[in-house]
């Protein structure tokens, strides 16, 4: 990375910011943001071509966070990469702030598309990938999708279209934490096999292993879109939040906040 920190350290910083942001604003979805932190750290830590000084650079790679309820994580990643000052994270989920609970592109450098209605972000990302290919661009487009989000029919309509068009510049990353809003995702369902059946070059990996993620996120070699099924743990990094559905809705306060910050190594310099 430009500032010399590792992707692992970037992931830790993202998690610390997420705890601080949800604590200060009493916002939900902390566990959903923690599960995706390593994926974002690897993408912004070197896989994606982007320049914080020129967020609208035509040659940039694009990322759409289709699971938009994890917006705190992407705001934290962008702030750490220098798209806007870290101090701006203090405004998360406050009245009049551009940093809404579900990720918003309005007035936020580095966010490509506002999401929150599940299934829409992956469809838009597919359209962006098609438009870039028609322009002759070599830019890649990534969409991070929740495994619960894969219940949406629009996800599979998009998968069929992307495969038919041979969008090799399009990569879907499934945050496979095996939980959704009201319970666990169905057991015995292989999302990897499903994406493979739809014609994607499908890879599986540990979604918290940065080397494994980097290896899985290499560009396509043929005329097929890519799907990376990243096996993750909801609430990763904070022991009492891990694999606990309650933290889809709870915000960390009191003793829970103190314990979470302690497990993540404490506040950062200039923290919110």
Please give a structural write-up.
This protein has helices at 7-25, 30-35, 37-47, 71-81, 120-134, 153-165, 191-197, 210-216, 254-263; strands at 62-65, 141-146, 170-176, 179-180, 183-184, 201-206, 226-231. It is an alpha/beta fold and 272 residues long. It has a 5-stranded parallel β-sheet with strand order 1-2-3-7-6, sandwiched between helices. It has a two-stranded antiparallel ribbon with strand order 4-5. β2, α6 and β3 (170-176) form a beta-alpha-beta unit. The longest helix is centred in the first third of the chain and has 19 residues, at 7-25. It is globular and about 50 Å long.
List the helices and strands and how they pair.
Layout: H1 7-25, H2 30-35, H3 37-47, E1 62-65, H4 71-81, H5 120-134, E2 141-146, H6 153-165, E3 170-176, E4 179-180, E5 183-184, H7 191-197, E6 201-206, H8 210-216, E7 226-231, H9 254-263
Parallel strand pairs: 1-2, 2-3, 3-7, 6-7
Antiparallel strand pairs: 4-5
Helix pairs in contact: 1-3, 1-4, 3-4, 5-6
